[in-house]
Amino acid sequence: MAAPTAHIALYDTLADSEIGHLLVELRTGRFTGTPWNVVTVAESAEPITTMGGLRIAPDLALADLDPRHSDLLVLAGAEMWDTGGGEVWAAAARRFLDAQVPVAAICGATAGLARAGLLDDRDHTSAALEYLMTADGYHGEDRYVDARAVVGGDLITAGPDSPVQFARATLSRLGLAPEQTLQAYEDVFHRADASAFPVLMQAH
């Protein structure tokens, strides 16, 4: 059986730090036993430069991205989200959610989805409620959850200070690991709790 596929949105100033934990766990499957294909997607074939200065050439054009051939869309933060950009990516997220394919959005990407109205009817979080309240078109304050990461149906959201929790929540939504393993993962990589490491190593 073919490995599942995660599509990673690429754009300049993409915040590498926010999605690094998730990408490593998906691609290696080291604690889940299920390695994923990680495929990058951009609006054009030109390389992008991440916030950390990495130049990445995309594997796929956004125009060719089809939720039917994907198991996850990942949207990282970037400068464009805070200048009102990212509409094409919010539209892609809408296509994925309409097709019941999970979308994982962190930091500024949550603002882009807020502007598109995609958070109004789903439990979600972000950097802070006040941050989302500045997004034109956002009416989801009643569904805002003050937590490090939140799973709202097919949507996973987190703030910029919670990359480990973002990874944990996404792995949970995808059904890739039991709660005991996920807790050990957060204990090791967020709390540096060495006592949790043996549990993590027994994951599969």
UniProtKB/TrEMBL annotation:
Q: Where is the DJ-1/PfpI domain?
A: 8-171
Known Pfam families for this protein? Answer: DJ-1_PfpI
Q: What Gene3D superfamilies does the annotation carry?
A: 3.40.50.880
Organism whose genome encodes this protein: Jiangella aurantiaca
The taxonomy runs: Bacteria, Bacillati, Actinomycetota, Actinomycetes, Jiangellales
Gene Ontology molecular function: transferase activity
Statement: the UniProt record of this protein carries the keyword rRNA-binding: no
Keyword list, A-Z:
Glutamine amidotransferase, Transferase
What is the name of the protein in this document? Glutamine amidotransferase
